[in-house]
Amino acid sequence: MMKKLFVTLTALALASLVLAACGSAPAAAPAASGTDLGGKTITIAVENAYPPFNSIDEATGKPVGWDYDTVTEICKRINCKPEFKEAAWDGIFPAMQSGEYDVLADGVSLTEEREKIIDFSMPYVNVGQVLLTRAGETRDLEGFKADASAKIGTQIGTTNEIVAKETFADRTVDSYEDFGGAVLALLANDIDVVVVDNVTASGFMRENEGKLMIAGQITSDEPLAFVFPPGSELKAAFDYALEQMKADGTLDTLNKKWGLSE
To answer: What predicted TM-score, i.e. pTM, was given to this entire model?
Structure first.
């Protein structure tokens, strides 16, 4: 009798263990918490003057660029609606810090100094600083550094401006409101070279075919990322989407399409 009772209790215990094990397996759940934004509209700040990231297509009058394609794809994956808003670069970081926009998508360099007041997504590409100049120019980096009469331009409030002032510390650097203005000054012979990242330099070269060239490289391996107000829930969601896009090849395809990578 005791033997039968022991066998019965043992069977019941095993059944309980099996049921417990089955119960411990989680039901199907989202790949990461906070990645479904429920169709929320988010505001995306762009300059519309920074090819290939964002610009206005002269033929159609419509905004185009890597930022538009990539943020649209991200929103498909995290269930949000992007509302792109044109914003001036000058003052953009205080604006992001105060939450004026939900996201800044403008080929922004990730730096420790900026991380003190804003949040960044994971980097989506690394770039280097180069010298953009007119086609046919014979001076390289050392040539421009040696020529005290050479006029240097860049965009105000950027890491490019920091690099330009460090590289050409013996002269005044002309800082423009945006890189479009700096390139126009270059084409008009008002300046001789623009310090800009290699991706953007290539974008302006495509827009001005045969008129511009890269004369040399100053730096390399500068990560670019999306920007958020401090503590934004969007950081985790964007990182999740970017990781997905990186894994399935979508990010690489978009980077190649817009010249961020070869």
So the answer is: 0.83
